[in-house]
Amino acid sequence: xxxxxxxxxxxxxxxxxxxxxxxxxxxxxxxxxxxxxxxxxxxxxxxxxxxxxxxxxxxxxxxxxxxxxxxxxxxxxxxxxxxxxxxxxxxxxxxxxxxxxxxxxxxxxxxxxxxx
Length: 116
Ligand code: 5GP
Description:
Blueprint: H1 8-13, E1 21-24, E2 28-32, E3 40-46, H2 54-60, H3 62-79, E4 85-87, E5 103-107
Helix pairs in contact: 2-3
This protein binds guanosine-5'-monophosphate.
């Protein structure tokens, strides 16, 4: 995909693609992962598509990273028992498939013997 094309997440934010949205404010959106790996598997996504991964996001807007963590905590409390795994896949060989920074929030029954 050429870099100029909007990511799948940008298209979800623009409501061009449906998603099960569970949270939204001015800077972030959260929705259920289409291929859940845990009883609760949400994606917390900055609305800006400027950052391909959490590395660029953290360097440019560290407060946005803190906001992602706070939203993850709130969503894990609302949808599960408040305990959660926060995963940022960074780079293709680490499993990143969407080049638009995002956090996986996994809670409830997690897959055994894996970190993702
Ligand atoms: P990554 O592999 O980049 O860390 O995470 C991308 C995640 O986005 C994957 O877990 C994948 O299941 C999810 N995903 C990909 N396309 C869609 C979509 O169209 N809708 C939703 N809700 N999730 C998606």
